[in-house]
Structure formats: C-alpha cells, structure tokens
Amino acid sequence: MTGQVLLLGGTGEARRLAAALVAAGVDVLSSLAGRVADPVLPPGAVRIGGFGGADGLAAWLAEHRPRAVVDATHPFAAQITAAAAAAAAAHGTPLLRLQRPGWTPQPGDTWRHVDSLAAAAEAVAGYRSVFLTTGRQGVGAFAALPGRVLVRSVDPPDEPLPAGATLLLDRGPFSLADELALLHEHDVDVVVTKDSGGALTEAKLVAARQLGLPVVLVRRPPLPAGVPTVGTVEEAVAWLEERLRPAGSAGTPRP
C-alpha cells in the first residue's frame, strides 16, 4: 500500500492499525485528542490536540490531502466521529469508521440498558454502593447520588464527584481476580459502565456476573449515516488496501 492515511486514534484498535500500516510502509499520521494526560502512543507519526471541529478538520484535509481517513476513536467519542464524517464529506476524502463490537450479555447477566449517563444515574439512585466506571467525562451526572460511589478513571474527573465518592485512578487491562477483589472490598451492589466493548475492561462484567450483581449499561451513540464501518483491524487494513492501491494495479488476488 502507498499513500497517506490520517488515523483518528486513542484506542487499542487504532494502535494496532497504526502498527500494521507502519509495518506495510504506509505513511500514517495518528491524531490523538489529548484528553488523557499520559496516552499510550502508537507507532509512526503522532499529533496531539484537536482540529477545531468539522471546519478545522476539513481545512486540515484540504491542506494535507491524505488519501483516506480512518476514525478509530472511542465508541463514545460522538463529537469527533460526527466532525470526521462532516469534514470528510466536505472535502471528498474516503472515510472509514473502525469500531469494535459492543458487549453481548451472557447467561447469568442482569443488564439494564439506558441511553444516557443521566438515565444511568436515575437507575442506580436507590443503591447503597455503586461502582462507576464510565470514564472521567460526565461524572457530574452522578454528583447527587446519596450512597457510596467508587469512581474509577484514568485521569481525575473535572466535574464534581458524589459526596460519598472514592476516586480510583487506574488504567486497564484489569484481571478478573482484581475486579472480584475490588467489588468485594467496596461492597459494591451495582456496576455502571458504557458499552465500550473489547477485552480490556470486560473483566468487571464477568465479575458482576459471578457475584450476581446488576449492571447498568449506557448504549452507544448512533453513528453518522453513510459512513462505512468495520469491527476489526484486519477489515480496516483490507479497506485501505483497496483505496491506496496505485491506479491500474489489480493487486494480489485474495484467497
């Protein structure tokens, strides 16, 4: 493959895709929003900081003219995903959304799906001890919870914490044994999380299942219409191969 790819990253899938592209000799630039103080950097060139919304990204595309854009941001980075779709459409740049599948309930799970953090806060208002693992943004929606709240995030939240909050700064992956110990230590009786998907933080769901605890799961925001979406790095590489192949080249037939 040849040509430049702008990779909107910050996820494990984005880092793996960057590694695959660098190994294939593709000129890839990974862009991180800069919302995490100490991000795990992908291979290849990296820029940190936003573009200034859809207009700013469209101007960047017009100046740098990448062959394709891959949006591999977090499933809940709705503003970035919407801006990428608008900017790519305005400039005529091919855009792919790489988004890992959400979690699937297993036998023994007691999940309640809600559409927002505010609805999640309402759903757990009557519980005694809440494990809140929705990231640092939006924690203010839970500020009025009356009971104990264990808040886990990578960086400290900017919003007010519940009065009975304990803040735990930690970064996954988390083992099942550690999650079980954490739930026991804090006597948790309900877990709140976003449907982020992936194995990195899935152990808390397995721990809740084993302990018979309910889980309140915030649904993902809808994706922009008309943007092709894949769920794996391998599918993203195949999509890029088609778009970065030199004109007139049939490429290597696939088995």
Summarize this entry quickly:
30% of the residues lie in helices and 21% in strands. By secondary structure, it is an alpha/beta fold. Helix 1 packs across helix 7 (233-244) and helix 5 packs across helix 6 (203-211).
Could you please describe the fold and organization of this structure?
- It is built from 7 helices and 12 strands.
- It is of the alpha/beta class and 255 residues long.
- β1 (4-8), α1 (12-23) and β2 form a beta-alpha-beta unit.
- The chain starts with a strand and ends in an 11-residue tail after the last helix.
One letter per element, helices H and strands E, the order comes to: EHEEHEHEEHEEEHEHEEH
Structural class by helix and strand composition? alpha/beta
Strand order of the largest sheet: 3-2-1-4-5-12
Query: How does the major sheet shape up?
Result: 6 strands, parallel
Radius of gyration: 20 Å
Strand content: 15-25%
- Number of distinct beta strands: 12
- Overall geometric form: elongated
Regions with little confidence, pLDDT below 50 for 5+ residues: 251-255
The whole-number mean of residue pLDDT values reads 91
Helix content: 25-40%
**Number of helical runs?**
7
Give the distance, in angstroms, between the N- and C-terminal Cα atoms. Answer: 18 Å
